[in-house]
Write a structure and sequence with these properties.
Elements: H1 2-21, H2 45-65, H3 70-87, H4 94-118, H5 127-148
Length: 149
């Protein structure tokens, strides 16, 4: 069973890791000067995205380094979800704040599914495909918003 879990974890890396690696666009220097939406406190989309991007990039790196340790994957995803929840207090741009809960939930769901697989819950295997679709959609929404900012 442990070999099967390891193989499933590697599959999850391929499913999720490659998507996340291309997910976080670096804000361009011209986008940093973008004005904040009306009613905001001056935080641009680019500035708000940068706060989220750093956490996503670190989680992606941790995810990739943990290929031989499924428990480390769980830890990295939980850590990212927690860091994104904490970053919510710093996000005052309403557009980015609207996307943040989905990004945070994506990492929390990844941690939950991977923990189930680590614990031997084979029913979580079926959740990987749906998770991959959600992961791609959520990352695309974030990327579209931040690239436009």
């Amino acid at each position: 069973m442990n070999r099967r879990i390891a193989a499933l974890t590697i599959t999850a890396f391929a499913l999720l890791g490659l998507t996340a690696c291309t997910a976080s666009p670096a804000p361009s220097s011209s986008s940093t000067a973008q004005a904040a939406p009306e009613g905001g406190d001056g935080q641009s989309v680019a500035d708000a995205c940068a706060l989220i991007q750093d956490t996503m990039q670190q989680a992606t790196e941790d995810f990739g380094k943990a290929a031989d340790d499924p428990a480390a994957v769980v830890g990295a995803m939980k850590s990212a979800a927690d860091e994104l929840a904490a970053a919510a207090d710093e996000i005052t741009n309403k557009d980015v704040a609207a996307v943040l809960p989905g990004v945070q939930q994506m990492f929390a769901d990844t941690a939950e599914i991977m923990q189930g697989i680590v614990d031997g819950d084979v029913s979580k295997i079926a959740d990987l495909a749906a998770l991959g679709e959600t992961f791609q959609s959520t990352v695309q929404d974030f990327q579209d918003l931040c690239a436009a900012g």
